[in-house]
Amino acid sequence: MALNFKQNSNLEKLGRVMGVDLSSRTPSIAYINMDGVSRLWVLTSIISTPYILWLLFKLKKYGWLISFSIFVVTPVLLGYFLTQNTTISLLFKGIALINWAVFLFLLRSSYRDWEEPYFKNTPGSDFK
């Protein structure tokens, strides 16, 4: 018996964004222009992060939005407002970058479990 899942366009959009892998497409270019490739990855992340956050908002995954603001935005703000030392400010930004990568890794590994089958609200359903 195959399970049929409800269509959710926002979840499908999130799946397309999370499924993109630029690392396999840029190795040959990376040897020629490493600076350009790193700028391309930064530009891609600057464009995709607000879109991912908007999709999480549309999917009503407020816990993910709160965790993003705590683990990524808070270190950047702390580094910007609380420190005058450039080295400590860069440390806070590095921590935010590592937290952002971990956030995307965890999101990529868990968004597939958000699909809801059709029989969720039927009597006798064991779907939680």
**Shape annotation:** flat
What string gives the helices and strands in order? HHHHH
The helix/strand class is mainly alpha
Task: Indicate the percent of residues in helices.
Answer: 55-70%
The structural domain count equals: 1
Poorly predicted parts: none
Most strands sheet: none
Distance between the termini: 19 Å
Indicate the proportion of strand residues. under 5%
Q: With helices defined by DSSP (H or I, 4 residues minimum), what is the helix count?
A: 5
Radius of gyration from the alpha-carbon trace, in angstroms: 19 Å
Arithmetic mean of pLDDT: 77
Number of strands: 0
Task: Please provide a brief summary of the model.
This protein is mainly alpha-helical and 128 residues long. The protein has helices at 9-18, 27-32, 34-58, 62-81, 86-110.
Give a written overview of the molecule.
- Helix 4 (62-81) runs antiparallel to helix 5 (86-110).
- The longest helix is centred in the middle third of the chain and has 25 residues, at 34-58.
- The protein has helices at 9-18, 27-32, 34-58, 62-81, 86-110.
- The protein has 5 helices and no strands.
- The model has no long low-confidence stretch (mean pLDDT 77).
- The chain has one domain.
- It is flat and about 50 Å long.
- With 128 residues, it is mostly helical.
